[in-house]
Amino acid sequence: MRYFTFKGRKRKASGTQESPPGAAPQKAAKSTAKQTPNSASKSGPKPKPTQIGKWEAAIVAMKGMFRDCSDVVYHEILFSHGVKGCVIFIDGIVKTEEIGNHALLPLLGLEDVPTQPAELERQALMVPQTSRCATYEEAAEAVLSGNAVLFVQNREEAIILHIRGGNRRGVEEPQTESVIRGPREGFVENLRTNTALLRFKIKSAKLKMKTMVIGEQTKTTVVLSYMEGIIDPKLVEEAMKRLSEIRIDGILESGYIEEMIEDQPLSPFPQLQYTERPDAASAALLEGRFAIFVDGTPFVLIGPVTFWQFMQASEDYYERYIIGNLIRWLRIFFSAVALYLPALYVAVTTYHQDMLPTNLLLSIAAARETIPFPAIVEALIMEVAFEALREAGIRLPRTVGQAVSILGALVIGQAAVQAGIVSAPMVIVVSLTGIASFTIPRFNMAISVRMLRFPLMILAGVFGLFGIIIGTVLIAVHLCSLRSFGVPYLSGIAPYDPKEQKDILVRAPWWKMDSRPGTFSPLNRRRLGQAGSSAKKRGGGTP
To answer: What is the pTM of this model?
Structure first.
């Protein structure tokens, strides 16, 4: 079943408006140029690129571009027959030993320096990857991207040496998605390390990676990765279109891109998933989704997504399906507890006391006898205090943050009960709610649940159970109208598809999941081959 209509988007990432169907491409381009805030039409015509000319002029031009940049190195060399050369690079982000061993030493050993840059690359340079540039602007961008640029006297083109280096964080276990069983490696801040980790998982030529540069000042490299033949080509086109429309001075984290390409930016629910795990990104690509890598961050964006995927963890697929299903049901149940428990307590104790057993009602009444606040105020005080303690525990140093959050909750809760500000049942309810919210595996979905808890409590305090029903209906209507790159947010349940039930509320055995989700991969749904069919027969009891 295909859902890629792409009509639910409320806001363009760059502030432009879509041209009407049938409009000429020239008019659409002209309209975009007029409305884009950072377009050339707004800031005036861009200067023409300056061609690389004489030796002295080239060095002076590069030094002029990088004036007051103390980390830029200009290493001048004298080749045979008095030919001059200069290597320009930024100290700390290139492999300086490769410049000496694979570029300068071979050139110094030449009796005659070739006149053509192409011959120079083939005959002398031992750098694995090189390219050429003909303008100062290209040379400056190459230097800023972590490469070295070689200028040779009387040559009209400079040679870019792709020898990026520098000290970056090594591959470590992800901190936000820890597992008991599964791979221990996680993405890092280096883009090429991240794409290499993905290549280690998927050794197929159908794994495609399209590169673009976003950010007028930061020039951040962004890679869109997908599996050709599995993903819907229209989805790739839509993702590339939204990325190419971004106009901003800098991209420092994938969160910048997430806000600019999501369908409904005003929704409290996340419409893109992020992950630090290469196995999670690989699994998403094999289902027909795409991944967006951003240089400088370990968090990779995955889309499109559905609501159910935020309730799934990597371990659901690594443990046997019986264990995985029990944990998944526990997770879904406590997600509902995290959303509804405080509101239910407020509604029942305020308006519907007759729903409680007599002994429980007398116990709660005795605990609340000296409390000066109504239940809704009491709940709001405790919830805000708990959220503040949780935020403090995150922001403090790791060695003391956990202890402060735990001790703070114990001390403040006990002191508040003894002072008669809040009741003991309310402390229990808030504690259970906080623990339940930690069972949601995705942090951005857990934040949404925690945020929606407050309007539900207010509705419960004003209207009782009817307020909770009103809030639930509004949330359900919003979820049904929400889309992620044209895919309904509740796909599989609304609209209902019986073929999609193998990995929503339950996770079927791997020998049962012989097809990919049709929501993401309508072209190639076949997942299992002959070996999988044999396992399916054994699972069915056939000898």
So the answer is: 0.80
